[in-house]
Structures are given as structure tokens and as C-alpha cells.
Amino acid sequence: MWVLLGEIFPNRIRAGALAVAAAAQWVANFFIFTTFPTFSSISLTFAYGFYAACALLSLVFVFFRAPETKGKELEEMEDLSV
Q: What is the spatial distance between Cα 32 and Cα 49, in angstroms, rounded to a whole number?
């Protein structure tokens, strides 16, 4: 996550974007921490299945929306749009 975030944002907004992305990561971790006991009381299969479905959705999002940065300089990535 941190490598992708460090490369994906243009230089002019990188600091602020990294702060927002880190905050979003903490919110997501808090969501998992607080929902797991409730979900596991329903069923562990449901809990892990729900989180696996969320991971699959994020994988699809990254596959289709995150631009490839391999072999590009940081300055070249200014032209990439998400």
C-alpha cells in the first residue's frame, strides 16, 4: 500500500493525499476491528466471506483504475489520471 501511494500521487498534492490515504486506512482498520465480533457471532464463514468479498472488490478496482507506474519517473506520473 505505501509503495503504491508514494508513486501514484503527483508531487504537488502528494503530502496531503498521503495523509488522506493513511487516514482512510486507519478508518478501514477500525471498521474491521469493530465489526468482526458481530460478524463472527453470526458465523465465521460470514465474517471471512464478507471481508474476502471486500478484498475482491478492491482488487477489481485496482486492476481497472490504478495506472501502471513500472519504469516511469515520478515526473512522468503527473500525466497519469486515475
A: 13
